Structures are given as C-alpha cells and as structure tokens.
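Whiteboard transcription, Tuesday session. T.W. wrote the structure tokens on the left side:
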C-alpha cells in the first residue's frame, strides 16, 4: 500500500509539473529593416543608381507626386527604349553571422508604367553578382501600387537590393516606376 501511495504521489507531481510549468520559449527572433523613403537617410545608407541624369534618383518628401504612404518615394525611369536603369543599396543582414540559414524576405510596393516594360526586384550576392532572389512587376494599365515579395535562405550577411526598370528596344514608351514602403525581414 505504501509503495502505491508513493507511486501515486510521484505521478501526481509529474502531472502538476507538466501542466503548470510553462515550456521554455523557442529560440527565435526577427530582424527588420524598413525604408519608407521619407527623409534622406544617413550617408552609409544611401541608394546608388546607374545614371542620375538618365534614370532619376529616390526623392524624399517635397515634390514626390504619388507616395503610397507618407510623403516620399523612390522614382526611377528609363526614357529611351533599349535602356535599363536601377537604384541599389547594400544591406547588412545583421543576424546572419550568428544564425546561418536564417529565412529572409523582401516586400515592396511599386507601380510600373510603359509598354512592354518591367520592374525587376532583385536580391544579389555582391561577391558573385548573381541573383539570390528575383521578382518582376509588369504594367497592369493603372498607376496603382502593387506589392512584390521575394524570399531566400540567407547564406551571407551582406546583400545588394536592386530595383531595375527595363525599357526594351521597340517599346516606344518611357518606362517608369514609383517604389515605396520597402521591408526586409529575417527570422532566425
């Protein structure tokens, strides 16, 4: 009888401990970079572009004509058929050195206008200059913002984010894109 009571007490203690003691939280985190193109960023975060005279540069506030949110946006264009123009920025994915294999994603809102043109959303490995992730947005007949997303498994801490407006030969139009509300996020 005594051993039965001991076993019952032990069983009861195990059940109470299982029910009342919370599990340890999972080892997880989220890192995020947000770029709303609202005000000029510090010099270390500046966007570069292919040719400011031909392609335009990000605008912050002031005369920005149609931002999705806030008062600024990035506007790029390729005036002549056969041109492509871009803006790019190197981004440091700070959790990657400690968490190799982190899942990362990029989301951006953009418009694209012109005939037979496209906006390429690119994540590039700066060591090999190859795509890590790629998406394309083509005109839909409106100036409405649409969301573009790409995802990848991070293998390196630095990536180049580039937006390219492509105006193919024979398009007969100007290619233009407004870009706003960029988010890059990694979970680990």
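and on the right, the sequence the group agreed on:
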């Amino acid at each position: 009888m005594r051993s039965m009571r001991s076993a019952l007490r032990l069983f009861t203690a195990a059940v109470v401990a299982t029910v009342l003691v919370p599990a340890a939280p999972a080892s997880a985190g989220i890192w995020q970079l947000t770029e709303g193109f609202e005000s000029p960023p510090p010099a270390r975060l500046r966007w570069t572009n292919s040719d400011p005279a031909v392609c335009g540069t990000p605008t912050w506030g002031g005369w920005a004509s149609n931002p999705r949110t806030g008062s600024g946006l990035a506007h790029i264009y390729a005036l002549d058929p056969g041109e492509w123009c871009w803006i790019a920025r190197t981004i440091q994915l700070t959790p990657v050195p400690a968490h190799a294999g982190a899942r990362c994603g990029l989301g951006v809102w953009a418009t694209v206008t012109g005939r037979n043109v496209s906006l390429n959303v690119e994540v590039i490995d700066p060591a090999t200059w190859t795509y890590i992730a790629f998406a394309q947005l083509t005109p839909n007949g409106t100036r409405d913002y649409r969301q573009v997303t790409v995802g990848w498994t991070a293998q390196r801490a630095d990536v180049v984010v580039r937006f390219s407006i492509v105006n193919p030969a024979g398009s007969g139009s100007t290619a233009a894109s407004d870009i706003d509300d960029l988010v890059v996020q990694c979970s680990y």
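Someone added at the bottom: The mean pLDDT is 81.
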